[in-house]
Amino acid sequence: MYKKNIVLAALIVAIPLIANAQNTRSAVAVTGSDAATCTVPDPCRTFGVALSKTNSGGEVVVLSSGGYGPFEVFQSVTIVSPPGIYAAIAPPSSGTAIRISGPSGNSVVLRGLYLNGSLGGFFGVFVASTGTLVYLENLVIAGFSSSGFTGVHNLQSDVRMKDSFLRNNDIGISLVGTSGTARARVTIDHCRLEGHTYGLSSNNYSDATVTNSLFTGNFRGVSIDSFSADIDARINIDNSVFAQNSVGIFAIRPLALIRVSSSTITQNTQYALDIQQGAQVMSAGNNVVIDNAAKETFTGTFALQ
Amino acid sequence: MQASLNSVMRRLVPLILFLIPLLASAQNTRSAVSVTGSDTATCTVPDPCRTFSVALSKTNLGGEVIVLSSGGYGAFNVTQAVTIVSPPGIYAAIAPNSGTAISILVASGNSVVLRGLDLNGSFGAASGVEVDSTGAIVYLENLVIAGFTAPGSGFGIYTGQQSDLRIKDSFLRNNVTGIFLSGSSATARARVTIDHCRLEGSTYGLWSYNHSDATVTNSLMSGNSRGVSIDSVVSDIDARITNDNSVFAQNRVGIFAIRTLALIRVSRSTITQNTLYALDIQQGAQVLSAGNNVVVDNAANETFSGTFALK
Q1: What is the pLDDT along chain A (305 residues), one digit of tens a residue?
Q2: Considering the domain boundaries, does residue A34 fall inside one?
Q3: Looking at the 3D structure of chain A, how many domains does it have?
Q4: Of the candidates A216, B89, B174, B258, which lies 20 to 30 Å from A111 by C-alpha distance?
């Protein structure tokens, strides 16, 4: 009887371990099968199944060019499509290419993927979780053009976006926090945001730092806008270019605060700076603001140190 | 029986006529080309075509064509909104003997994305990318466009229409003219943003002609007869160029502008070791400085025509 109990206890311990036998490195390929083990020699077909067979903190690599279908991420993971592979996620007719859920503190890396909304997809990357660290690197996110929808939508996490192209989405990057202390935050470095209604749309409770980036051909390059209430949103912009948009920078109401340094705002066809109802767009005094149709004056300055 | 058959045929014929165009327009949202592909294939990833021309004809409006293997793919025309991508690691060359490597002829408002291609003019083609559409938005990314030296043409990128070109991370080398811009009127302008590009070994790196706006950022112009140029042999030219954080080195002339409507602004840029002039400013043209440029070690003409203030 005592021995039986030991065996039973051992089985109870072992069953979840067996169920959790997972890969530290999973793989997907267009020739793979979702009945496979999702390893490099035996790849799966979709990210959804590969993720379900990957340890938290593990990685999923792409082995061949093609389409892989939308998926949701619940765990810490690194997903890499290396240079030389064209891995596309193109949601059919609606929906989200990559949704990031899961508990606070997770770290998710997406690298080298092409997100294509031209079939009617609503969101490229939708960060639904709170307190997740999301690293977006070398992505192309294009064609999420349905009105009100977005290339990258961040509700209340930290997004670190680098070396990525956002093109022809309705909104390139949208930030919405939940309170003054639970903010949506993003750093945008070496990115290009082109052909949007709003390149970066910062909504309530959000912080953005934009560096070494290019905004062209948008209705507004960056925008702090709201139809109704005041918006607690701040954007710092350094060494970036706003060229040939309709409006380079837009801000409205007193809590909207944008600071601009070492940047070039030029050839915008309506306004360089559209600043309304007490918003502040401050300059470090070292910007080129020239050859715009109108409104080339900042509301104030801040000192370099 | 015959009457019954006729009755069936009368119903079938309209159905067949209805279905034919539907079948003919059955298209891919993602097409693929490969050097091992065939133009009789379906042009999908598992069954790729051989040429872009056929792949494009089987691709939906707004779809994409991707390149699966390295090699030459032949010249083609783009007549629809589309994204064409050769990912890093693939060398997809377009090297025709004559004419234009890629001609863009799309409806106004259409977006065309060309990414990662190598356009080679050394076999005699006249132009690399020619945008002949009004109102097209053309994204040119990670391209190499080299060797378009045909006499009388030789354009890396050419547009003579109202269009928006967004050129990033591209190399233009040894063309007669790297990039040529000309709009059709003062309100129908050819516009380009050039970011993180290198324009080298051309007669004109960037040639802005009438009714054009260019913004050049984070780019290098070297080894050209002129780095950027607003030039016309005849009349005044309504053209503006904003240059920021760019380098004009070891050209013959860094920046050239002629006549009163030509207006170039330069900020945070370096103009150095140009062997004839740093700045060749003629007949009332303006080349204005933000006062934070390095203009040094050129053979002559290092003085801007005026300044503008930073803000």
Answers
A1: 455 555 555 545 444 444 455 999 999 999 999 999 999 999 999 999 999 999 999 999 999 999 999 999 999 999 999 999 999 999 998 999 999 999 999 999 999 999 999 999 999 999 999 999 999 999 999 999 999 999 999 999 999 999 999 999 999 999 999 999 999 999 999 999 999 999 999 999 999 999 999 999 999 999 999 877 889 999 999 999 999 999 999 999 999 999 999 999 999 999 999 999 999 999 999 999 999 999 999 999 999 99
A2: no
A3: 1
A4: A216
**What structural domains and CATH numbers belong to chain B?**
60-307 (2.160.20.10)
- Paired with A50 in beta bridges are none
Residues 6+ apart with CB under 8 A from A263: A237, A238, A239, A240, A241, A242, A287, A288
Mean pLDDT across B125-153: 95
Is residue A9 situated within a structural domain?
no
Host H or E run for residue A71: strand A71-73
ipTM (interface pTM):
0.87
Indicate the residue of A65, A264, A290 with minimum beta-carbon distance to B68: A65
Does residue A67 sit at the B interface (CB-CB below 8 Å)? yes
Q: Specify if A265 maps to a domain.
A: yes
User: Which residues are CB-contacts of B107 (< 8 A; sequence separation ≥ 6)?
Assistant: B133, B135
How far is A288 from chain B, CA to nearest CA, in Å? 5
The answer for residues whose C-beta is within 8 angstroms of residue B15's C-beta and 6 or more apart is none
How is residue B222 written in tokens?
């070297």
3-state secondary structure string, chain B?
A: CHHHHHHHHHHHHHHHHHHHHHHHCCCEEEEEECCCCCCCCCCECCECECCHHHHHHCEEEEEEEEECCCEECCCEEECCCEEEECCCCCCEEECCCCCEEEEECCCCCCEEEEECEEEECCCCCCEEEEECCCCEEEEEECCEEECCCCCCCCEEEEECCCEEEEEECCEEECCCEEEEECCCECCECEEEEEECCEEECCCEEEEECCCEEEEEECCEEECCCEEEEECCCCCCCCEEEEEECCEEECCCEEEEEECCCEEEEEECCEEECCCCEEEEEECCCEEEECCCCEEECCCCCCCCCEECCCC
Structure tokens at B188: 């129908």
Q: Residue B171 is encoded by which pair of tokens?
A: 């190399």
Cross-chain Cβ contact A285/B310 below 8 Å = yes
In-domain check, residue A276: yes
Which residue range(s) make up the domain with A94? 63-301
- The DSSP H or E segment spanning A2 is helix A2-19
The CATH code of the domain that includes A252 is 2.160.20
Give the global pTM: 0.90
What is the least distance, in Å, from the CA of B214 to any CA of chain A? Answer: 8
